[in-house]
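Supplementary Text 2. Reproducibility record for the structural model of the 330-residue chain.

All settings were left at their defaults, and a single model was retained for analysis rather than an ensemble. We include the record here because the model underlies the residue-level annotations in Supplementary Table 4.
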Amino acid sequence: MQNKAENILNPCRYHLSPEAKKRLRWMYVIYYESDNNITTSANKIGISREWLSKLKNIFENNDKDPRSLEPQSRSPRNTDNRKRISEETEKKIIEIRKKHFWGKDKIASVVSGKHLLPVSGPTVNRYLHKHRLIDPKISMKNKQAYQNKKERDKRISLKMQARPPREIKDWKPGALIEKDMKLVPKVSFIGARYRFSEYFYSQHTLIDSFTRIRILALTEGATSRESKKAFDENKRRLPFPIAGINSDNGGENEGEFSQKLEKENILHFHSRAGTPTDNPRVERSHLTDEREFYQQGKIMNTFEKQKEEIMKWEQTYNFERPHQCSSSQT
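Retained model, structure tokens:
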């Protein structure tokens, strides 16, 4: 209807505000959908008959110029009679500001409470600007920070400090992916022999709750950046898109990794602290890794060899090893 209203009632294509465009649509309803009947049009639009009639008169008295539908400013034309604060109050505001450099609310509280001179925070702010006692750079910085906060609050957060609903766990492939990280011992060449060192690689595991397909990636660190890198690698190898992820509260699941999930519109659920049963499939798969892979001599002496062996183990786990959950099928 917007295009029809503008094509017919605004043929000169005047620039209109959103409010004026809305009122122009109302005029279209009157002339072309309600046969000039104000009552029918008002009921259809959902506004009062008196207000619609007044707008119609304004529109017609200005030769149906759509610019006449622009809302008028509500600011007073004459502020000479507006109540002002006393000179004593103004001096007290300036004095306290110069002495303590407090903000408007603290100054208003002290002036009203201690000195019994009623004044509000916005009034204090206006007089601080008047006397140039506010740094414009700081003021603009605070204003921008407030606007940014409002924008952040508008966004729907996809990060939830809660367990996933039971219904989505076995709903469809990719509906819920369980994620966890396992530490893999490094082997170092010490004293002419290979020995276990005090450092670890990080095995990042994703397992689909529905199909039990499991994807592995190995990184040299355990940061959120490494976790994000492993997630990108794992996601490419999954045969279906990811809708939600359930992880623990480790640092590798925050920061860049969490931002990556939010950017890709993936729900991020969290298990309770110290409760591995909230992520049961991936936790149980790590026990299988330990018993059937690492304890069977599959800890390599270089990162490249370890990564190669893990890829072979992933293939064995997914397509060769029988699983009890699927009646001993692969």
